[in-house]
UniProtKB/TrEMBL annotation, chain A:
It comes from the Bacteria. Keywords: Oxidoreductase, Thiamine pyrophosphate. It catalyses: N(6)-[(R)-lipoyl]-L-lysyl-[protein] + 3-methyl-2-oxobutanoate + H(+) = N(6)-[(R)-S(8)-2-methylpropanoyldihydrolipoyl]-L-lysyl-[protein] + CO2. The branched-chain alpha-keto dehydrogenase complex catalyzes the overall conversion of alpha-keto acids to acyl-CoA and CO(2). It contains multiple copies of three enzymatic components: branched-chain alpha-keto acid decarboxylase (E1), lipoamide acyltransferase (E2) and lipoamide dehydrogenase (E3). Coiled coil: none annotated. Its EC number is 1.2.4.4. Residues 88-382 form the Dehydrogenase E1 component domain. Belongs to the BCKDHA family. GO terms for molecular function: branched-chain 2-oxo acid dehydrogenase activity. Pfam families: E1_dh, OxoDH_E1alpha_N. The lineage of its organism: Bacteria, Pseudomonadati, Pseudomonadota, Alphaproteobacteria, Sphingomonadales. InterPro entries: Alpha-ketoacid_DH_E1_comp, DH_E1, Oxoisoval_DH_suAlpha_N_dom, THDP-binding. This is 2-oxoisovalerate dehydrogenase subunit alpha.
UniProtKB/TrEMBL annotation, chain B:
It comes from the Bacteria. Its EC number is 1.2.4.4. Residues 18-193 form the Transketolase-like pyrimidine-binding domain. This is 2-oxoisovalerate dehydrogenase E1 component beta subunit. It comes from Sphingomonas jejuensis.
Length: 423, 351
C-alpha cells in the first residue's frame, strides 16, 4: 500500500458499491424505470440485421396499453381462444404456486419457489414456441411445463420426492426434468443451462433439424461467465437459440445493480456481441408472445440468436427460504409500474368483450380445484420426510450407465450399515 | 483382467506403425466414419488440425460442421458439448492443455458428470474431453500440469490415461463409445516416443516400440482394465501415462524383479489387478508426475493398504512431483525421474 499522503494533489479513489433505490422502511421508488407508451417500439422485419435495431435493446416493447387495448406493430393478433388459454395457464401456474407454497409451509416438502408476477414470461413463451422446441429453463419457468400440458401430479411428485417422483428423490424440489415436454433438467448452478442451450441449438443446426432451443436465466446470473460464453458461442455460430434474461429486479437480496443493471440494460449485452437484442415488458403477455414469436422466426430461418430481456418484478420471496422484508421496501410490489401480468391480460380480454368477471372467478375456482385434486393424488404417493420413498440401492444407480465395482462395493457397505442399524 | 479386446478387423495382415498423435487421430477418424453423431471441436482443431496435430485432416475429411474451431472459452466448449450431448450428438471436445481445463470445471463437475443421475437417465452427457497433460517439454507452470486426481474425485466422471499408441487408440475409441463423460488425458511428453526419464539422452521414436503397431480399423481397449506391462515377483509398481516408461527403464537399468502395472483407467480403477499383484509381491511403489498431496497416489495407497495390509512387507511408497508449481527452468529437478524412483526402490526393498 502506498502512502496516500505522498500525492496530496490527487483525490482519493472511491469504490462504488451499488445501493437499491429503497430499503425496508422506505417508500418504494421506481423513478429510474422509464415506461414508454405501449405500441411505440418499432417492429423490424424478422430478417433485419441486428445492427439495424440496436435501439430496441434500450427501449421496451409493449403491446397492452393502460386501458387493456393491444396496440402497435408488435400486437401478435392472437385469437380470443388462444388468449383465454394463455390466461388459464397463467392462472393455473399461480394456483399451483399458492398450493405448493402452502404445502412447504405445512412441512410436506423442504423447499419451493413461486413465480408470482412472472407468469406471462414462461406461459406466453411456451405458446409462441413450437411444442418440440427445446427449453433450458432456470428455476422460475414452471409455466413452461404447465402450458405444455405436463400433468400437475408429476410436478408435485417431484416436489414431494415421493414414490411417484421419476427423478427418484434425487433433486431439490422444483428442479424438474421433463424430456417429453422439451424441458431440460434444471441445475442449481446458475446459468450453466445457457451455453448448453446454445450447444443443443448448434447440434440441431449441424443435423439440419428444424427445432430451435431457448434458455432462461435471471438478470443476476447474467454475471456468470457461462452467460457470456453462451453469448459468444451463439454469435460465432449463429446458433438457432433464444437467450431469455428474466430481469425481475432481485437476485435473492441483491438488486439488479450488482449484475451491472445501473450502467445499462441487460438486453444491451446483445449489442456487444452483435446479436439481435430486445427489451420487453415481461408483464405484458402479448408483448412476450410477440417478441418470442419474432425471435423464433429469426432462429428458424437461420438469422441467428436473439437475446431478450424481460423486464418484470419478483412479486414474492426468492424461495421459501427467503424473507424479502429484510432487504427491500415493503410496498415495492404495489408500486411496480408494469402491473400484474394476469390482471393485464384479463383486462384486455374484458376490454375486447371476450371475457368477464364471472368467467374469471369461475376459472380461478376451476384452477384451485384442479390443483387441489392433483395434490390429493400426489400425496397418495407420499410426502417428503414421511418414510423412505426410494429403495436405498437406488442411491447408487445412474451415477454411470453401468455401475462400476467401487460403487457396488459401497452399496454393499450401505446395506450392511442399514442392517447393523436394524433398518 | 488385463486382456485387451481386439476385433477381427484389427488383425489385418499389415499393421501400420503410428506414434501416439497418429493413433489418437486415427481413433477420431474411425469413430467419425462409423458414427455421424461424433463431432470434434476445440481451439485450433479445425483447419489447422490442432496445436499438436491430433485432429489433422479431420475437417477436410468430415466437413466444417463436424470438426470446427471454437472460441477460447473452456466453459463454453464444455457447456456447448453438454447441450450437444443432450441433443443426441457424441461430442469430442479438445481442451488445448490440461492446464486450461479449470474454467470448464463447473460444466464438467456439476453438469456433465451429474446429468444422468439428476435426470434419472432422461439426459446424458456422452462426451469425451481430450486434453494433453503432464510436463517434460519445458512448458512452464501453465503447460505442464497433471490435474487427473481432481477428476477422479468427481462422482460421474471417468478418467483415462494411455501410455502407448496402441492403447491410446483403443482407449479413445472405447471412451467415445462410452455413454458417460470421460476425461481423456494424453501424456504429451510421449506423443512422439516413449520416455526413459533420461532427458539428456536422445528420444527414441515410437516406431521402435512394439505398441506402435496400431491397427488401421476399429478396436477397443476396454475402460477400467489395467495392464501388467512387466511381470515380476519382488515389487509392484503402479504408474500411468509417461511414468510407465520411466518406471520401466529404471527397473530394467537396476535389474529389479518388479511387476509394473499401467493403470490406463484411473476411474473406474482396476483394483483387482493391483491387489492381486501386491498380494504376490508384498511391496507397492506408486509413481505419478502430479503433485504429491491429495494426488491419485494417495487414493491408490489407501486402497492398497485396505486390501493388502497383511501382505505388505514395507510401507507403500509414493514417487511424485513436488507440491510446487511446475517450474520452467527447474523442470528436471521437479520431474519424478530415475533418481527419485531409484531411491524409493532402495527404500522399499531395504528390509
Amino acid at each position: 500500500m502506498s502512502d496516500a499522503t505522498s500525492r496530496p494533489n490527487l483525490p482519493p479513489l472511491r469504490l462504488h458499491v451499488p445501493e437499491p433505490p429503497a430499503r425496508p422502511g422506505e417508500e418504494a421508488n421506481f423513478d429510474h424505470v422509464t415506461v414508454p407508451p405501449a405500441g411505440e417500439a418499432r417492429r423490424p422485419a424478422a430478417d433485419a440485421a441486428p445492427a439495424d435495431f440496436r435501439d430496441l435493446a434500450y427501449g421496451l416493447v409493449r403491446v397492452l396499453d393502460d386501458d387493456g387495448r393491444a396496440v402497435g406493430p408488435w400486437d401478435p393478433r392472437l385469437s380470443p381462444d388462444r388468449l383465454r388459454t394463455m390466461l388459464r395457464h397463467m392462472a393455473l401456474t399461480r394456483a399451483f404456486d399458492e398450493r405448493m407454497f402452502r404445502a412447504q409451509r405445512q412441512g410436506k416438502t423442504s423447499f419451493y419457489m413461486k413465480c408470482t408476477g412472472e407468469e406471462a414470461i414462461a406461459v406466453a413463451q411456451a405458446h409462441a414456441l413450437a411444442p418440440d422446441d427445446m427449453c433450458f429453463p432456470s428455476y422460475r419457468q414452471q409455466g413452461l411445463l404447465i402450458a405444455r400440458g405436463c400433468p400437475l401430479v408429476d410436478m408435485m411428485n417431484q416436489i414431494y420426492s415421493n414414490s411417484g417422483d421419476k427423478l427418484m428423490g434425487r433433486q431439490l424440489p422444483i428442479m424438474y426434468s421433463e424430456k417429453r415436454f422439451g424441458f431440460f433438467s434444471i441445475s442449481g448452478n446458475l446459468a450453466t443451462q445457457v451455453p448448453q442451450a446454445v450447444g443443443w441449438a448448434m447440434a440441431s443446426a449441424i443435423k439440419g433439424d428444424t427445432r430451435i432451443a431457448a434458455a432462461w436465466c435471471g438478470e443476476g446470473s447474467t454475471a456468470e461467465g457461462d452467460f457470456h460464453s453462451a453469448c459468444t458461442f451463439s454469435a460465432v455460430y449463429q446458433a438457432p437459440v433464444i437467450l431469455n434474461v428474466v430481469n425481475n429486479q432481485w437476485a435473492i437480496s441483491s438488486f439488479s445493480g450488482f449484475a451491472g443493471g445501473e450502467a445499462t440494460t441487460f438486453a444491451a449485452r446483445a449489442v456487444g456481441h452483435g446479436i439481435a437484442g430486445l427489451r420487453v415488458d415481461g408483464n405484458d403477455a402479448l408483448a412476450v408472445y410477440a417478441a418470442t414469436e419474432w425471435a423464433a422466426e429469426r432462429a428458424r430461418t437461420n438469422q441467428g440468436p436473439t437475446l431478450i430481456e424481460f423486464f418484470t418484478y419478483r412479486a414474492e420471496a426468492h424461495s421459501t427460504s427467503d424473507d424479502p422484508s429484510g432487504y427491500r421496501s415493503a410496498n415495492e410490489g404495489a408500486a411496480w409500474p408494469l402491473g400484474d401480468p394476469i390482471a393485464r391480460l384479463k383486462q384486455h380480454l374484458i376490454t375486447t368483450g371476450e371475457w368477464d368477471e364471472e368467467r374469471h372467478a369461475a376459472m380461478d375456482r376451476d384452477c384451485a380445484e384442479e390443483v387441489k385434486a392433483a395434490q390429493k393424488q400426489a400425496e397418495t404417493n407420499g410426502i417428503l420426510g414421511h418414510g423412505m420413498h426410494q429403495p436405498f440401492d437406488t442411491m447408487f444407480e445412474g451415477v454411470f450407465e453401468n455401475t462400476p465395482a467401487h460403487l457396488l462395493e459401497q452399496a454393499r457397505q450401505m446395506r450392511d450399515e442399514r442392517e447393523a442399524a436394524g433398518i | 483382467m488385463t486382456d485387451t479386446i481386439v476385433s477381427a478387423e484389427a488383425e489385418a495382415p499389415t499393421t501400420p506403425r503410428m506414434n501416439m498423435i497418429q493413433a489418437i487421430n486415427s481413433a477420431m477418424d474411425v469413430m467419425m466414419e462409423r458414427d455421424p453423431n461424433v463431432v470434434v471441436m476445440g481451439e485450433d482443431v479445425g483447419f489447422f488440425g490442432g496445436v499438436f496435430r491430433a485432429t489433422a485432416g479431420l475437417q477436410a475429411k468430415y466437413g466444417k460442421t463436424r470438426v470446427f474451431d471454437t472460441p477460447i472459452n473452456e466453459c463454453g466448449i464444455i457447456g456447448v458439448a453438454v447441450g450437444m450431448g443432450a441433443y443426441g450428438l457424441r461430442p469430442v471436445p479438445e481442451i488445448q492443455f490440461a492446464d486450461y481445463i479449470y474454467p470448464g470445471m463447473d460444466q464438467l463437475i456439476s453438469e456433465a458428470a451429474r446429468l444422468r443421475y439428476r435426470s434419472a437417465g432422461e439426459f446424458t452427457a456422452p462426451i469425451t474431453v481430450r486434453s494433453p497433460f503432464g510436463g517434460g517439454i519445458f512448458g512452464g507452470q501453465t503447460h505442464s500440469q497433471s490435474p487427473e486426481a481432481i477428476f477422479t474425485h468427481v462422482a460421474g466422471l471417468k478418467t483415462v490415461i494411455p501410455s502407448t499408441p496402441y492403447d491410446a487408440k483403443g482407449l479413445l475409441i472405447a471412451a467415445i463409445e462410452d455413454n458417460d463423460p470421460v476425461i481423456f488425458f494424453e501424456p504429451k511428453r510421449i506423443y512422439n516416443g516413449p520416455f526413459s526419464g533420461h532427458y539428456d539422452r536422445p528420444v527414441q521414436p515410437w516406431s521402435k516400440h512394439p505398441a506402435s503397431e496400431v491397427p488401421a480399423g476399429h478396436y477397443r481397449v476396454e475402460l477400467g482394465k489395467a495392464k501388467i506391462v512387466r511381470p515380476g515377483a519382488g515389487l509392484t509398481i503402479l504408474a500411468y501415462g509417461t511414468m510407465v516408461h520411466v518406471a520401466l527403464s529404471v527397473v530394467e537399468e537396476q535389474g529389479i524383479d518388479a511387476e509394473v502395472i499401467d493403470l490406463r483407467t484411473l476411474l473406474p480403477l482396476d483394483i483387482d489387478t493391483v491387489a492381486a499383484s501386491v498380494e504376490k509381491t508384498g511391496r507397492c511403489l506408486i509413481v505419478h508426475e502430479a503433485t504429491r498431496t491429495s494426488g491419485f497416489g494417495a487414493e491408490l495407497s489407501a486402497q492398497v493398504q485396505e486390501r493388502c495390509f497383511y501382505a505388505l512387507e514395507a510401507p507403500v511408497e509414493r514417487v511424485t512431483g513436488f507440491d510446487t508449481p511446475y517450474p520452467h527452468s527447474l523442470e528436471w529437478a521437479y520431474f519424478p525421474g530415475p533418481v527419485r524412483i531409484r531411491e524409493a526402490i532402495k527404500k522399499i526393498m531395504k528390509d
